[in-house]
Amino acid sequence: MMRWRNNNRTQPAATTARLVALVLVACVAVGCSAEVVFVEDEAGTLHINTSDPARQPVFVNGVSVGNLFSAATTQQRMIEQQQRRIAALSEAVCRMRVPAADTTSIVSTDTASRDVLDMEGAKWNGAVLAGDGRIFGIPYDAAAVLIIDPRAGTADATTISGLGETGAKWGGGALASNGVVVGFPHRADGVLLINPATNTADTTSIAGFGTSSGKWISGVAASNGLVYGIPWDTSAVLVVDPVTNASDTIAIASTATATGGRWYAGAQSDAGLIFAVPYNERSVLVINPDTNATDTIAITGLSTNTQGYFGAVLANNGHIYGIPFSASSVLVIDTADNSTRAIANGVPTRPGKWRGGALAANNGLVVGVPFGSDDVLVIDPATETVSTTIAVPDSDNFKWTGGVFSPATELVYAVPSASHSVITIDLGC
């Protein structure tokens, strides 16, 4: 026996005729020895059911639907077994990957680039990962942008050059929404605009800030498309629109007390506020990109050290971690309630330890870049513990700054200040 059931209210005549023919053919094929039901649901999907699927299977174009389902189920089990095996092997390989720092894996593209790297002084200050995967070091004393290609393992200091021999030109950088790398004017008169697509630099389109030293040396690209420069020796936040090449400044809150080296680096929370960590200030600077207003947050239990923090990293848990320079603790900013606390265990008391930081996206760890320290700072946001077990192969002071994680290699890269090589930091997996 065979039945056709149509759950739609209306059925075109032609379609009905075709379905009747299909029912008749199916009935002849099975001899009407069992019930076969054809059902068209409201969505127009055709369902074919038999009363005894084991003895009267459904065939479509000669293929048994039951056997096909059985094969797919078996294949799914095999895939799941393979995935478990791959996961176990990946874990075993991960355990073999020892966290380490290296200064030899990035080589110069040419002799001229090697000569720039061999220069004395604070060559670059800060670095930015561009959309093409390359890392751009911001020239401080150097006359050229440092271009690191993580995939190729090369460093180039000649492609974007001729930026002047004056020291302390720019410091820190941010990737704008239009793909341009923005460098903040420290002593330079203009903002540094690096176009990775053309390998060119522009220092005049956003200018007129004067050549006095210490204006800005770090900043944040906000979600509203604007870039904010964090006040260093100045009393105002710099606001840059890289699309229109316009700029403005925002007066900071009057509660600020330090006259120089005020804040360094910041990060934007998921809620949209920018938090900048204090260097010589006694408070966290808060910038609201929606209103361009500023505020400060007093820090409970702040170390009495000046030159406190030199870097800020937003972790996956939503907290911002201040990288200790001379402070004896890691600063933790809880952006949910704007509270602060400190992680002191495991942080040495010596000055000038780390400068800049990065989030390792593959494992969620926060890295502090060694400046005067002989080891890498590693913060685990999940446990809020600190480790300094990764030694660096360079005992000089003023070694590296910045800190950029490359998804291509799962390594953190930092640009040389007084050091003569790029450092790569492998945190494992």
From TrEMBL:
Return the SUPFAM superfamilies for the record. Answer: NHL repeat
Keywords noted in UniProt: Signal
Q: Which InterPro entries match?
A: Host-pathogen_enzymatic-act (IPR051200), WD40/YVTN_repeat-like_dom_sf (IPR015943)
Which residues, if any, are the signal sequence? 1-34
Instruction: Give the PANTHER family listed for this entry.
Output: DIHYDRO-HEME D1 DEHYDROGENASE, PROTEIN NIRF
| Name of the protein in its database record | Uncharacterized protein
